[in-house]
Amino acid sequence: MIKQLLALALSLGIGHQALADELPFSPLPDSKVKERLTRHYSPFDIITGIDNGSYTTQRFSGQLKRINYKLPASYLAGHAVNNYKAQIEKLGGSILFECLEKACGDERRLSKQVNPLNAIADQTPALLTAKLPLAKKQLYLSIYAANWHRGASLQLDIIEIIDEPLDLLSTNQAYLASDVIQTQFKDRRDKDTRGSSDHPMIARLPGAYIQDYLQQGFGQSLVFDGVDKTQHQLVTLEGKITDIAYKLPRRYSEFEVDANYKAALEKLGFVRSFHCQGLACGKTRLIKRRINTLIHIGNDEDQYYSLYRLDRPEGAVHVMVFITGFINGLWSELRVVEETKLVDDRVVIDLEGLTDKIAQNGHVALDGLLFKFDSDEMLPEADEVITTLATYLNTHPKQSFYVIGHTDDQGKQSYNQVLSERRAKAVVKALTSEHKISSKQLTAKGIGEYVPVANNFDEAGRKLNRRVELVLRSDVK
């Protein structure tokens, strides 16, 4: 609306007086301001000659005003420029260069050199450049006009010679004398993904929260310890795996995050065996594909990757640190692999033991029936338990059972109840679909956290509480 009102005022002639007060000349009658530009201080090239079609220029520096006028079709470019020339001469100015039409050379080249704010008109051009010394200041002027079939245009450029103002800024002595204040970050642990935690060996950076998390008692993990012509030299590590993806405040730099992890791990005795940064690490999407990182959104040029190792009698510990981000986001991934032996005796239930427990107690905990973290997907080592259970059910077809799912008390009660029922249903599904057990024998129920067999104050107790039980029913014949 303001622009529209200004345009209306200019079209009615209002504002010409205010504009004239800022300039050495009043505008031509019936002219309208098309474009304006003011620069506090700027260098500007003025044409001072023409030689074989090439323009010679001289650079002047000062306060720059550029005004482009729209003129009626009745104005010829030469006539408009001559009016300015007459006033310059009356004021005692001197002409540096002038030309008219063909004497100005190629029309388009001239227009490109002058670079008017509105370049529609470029026919029958006229150009005048001049020096105008005044009592208190010195001006250099460029007046360029041209016609087109619907009117004319005039570009007036004025350079008021001044020394470059270098006293515009002041220093804050209080700030310069103060100590460096480190950025403070709000604690965001409340945003951690469910069931996750920091590795006990190394804490998170302030302000970080866990966006993704994976932990396995024993597994295999791929890392790389070299890059050769975009190919990653992959290494397979085995042991207890803890993989944590942190979302970081963007005020950190990738370099700062990498340096902090390096300092912390070296204090613990780790040795960095491989390091790369930027494009030397390969493309982020290829790293994600080849070693299955939890983070993958970032610029290839800004990523950092390091591999650390700590040797100890119980087995080596390997740590992969991967950092990537872009202008609006930053992530770090800490993957810890603690070398250990595979525990291959998890399945402690056998057919004889199962039979005895049911006969004696009417229920049995299905030891070795393990699930992925926060999931109803059973781990491969659960297959033997399911097979043993199916064998028992096939030999006791007239018995009916509840399959009861239990959880620890971590997290919301409502969520735990749903998760426990999902796990119970997963066991029933495996028995009925894979081993053809009659669905009439089994009823899945989830109890959640309400029937613990141990305390929930430590991981050992919570592990015992995360279980599935088979309960003999007497109410079904």
Provide structural commentary:
The chain is α+β, with helices and mostly antiparallel strands and 477 residues long. The chain is 25% helix and 36% strand. The chain has 11 helices and 16 strands. Strand 4 (123-133) and strand 5 form a beta hairpin.
**Count of helical regions:** 11
Instruction: Please outline the major beta sheet.
Output: 6 strands, antiparallel
- Kindly report the spatial arrangement of strands forming the biggest sheet: 1-2-6-5-4-3
Number of distinct beta strands = 16
Structural class: alpha+beta
Identify the overall geometry.
Answer: elongated
Report the β-strand fraction as a percent range: 35-45%
> What is the rounded distance between the termini?
85 Å
Spans of at least 5 consecutive residues whose pLDDT stays below 50 are 1-19
In which range does the helix fraction lie? 10-25%
State the main characteristics:
477 residues; alpha+beta; 60s Ribosomal Protein L30, Chain: A; 3 domains; 6-stranded antiparallel sheet; 11 helices; 16 strands; elongated; disordered N terminus
Write a compact overview of the structure shown.
This protein has helices spanning 2-11, 16-22, 77-90, 107-114, 173-177, 254-267, 284-291, 351-361, 383-395, 413-434, 459-465, and strands spanning 32-51, 54-71, 94-100, 123-133, 138-148, 151-161, 209-228, 231-248, 271-277, 304-310, 317-326, 329-338, 363-365, 401-406, 442-448, 468-472. It has 477 residues and is an alpha+beta fold.
Secondary structure layout plus pairing:
Blueprint: H1 2-11, H2 16-22, E1 32-51, E2 54-71, H3 77-90, E3 94-100, H4 107-114, E4 123-133, E5 138-148, E6 151-161, H5 173-177, E7 209-228, E8 231-248, H6 254-267, E9 271-277, H7 284-291, E10 304-310, E11 317-326, E12 329-338, H8 351-361, E13 363-365, H9 383-395, E14 401-406, H10 413-434, E15 442-448, H11 459-465, E16 468-472
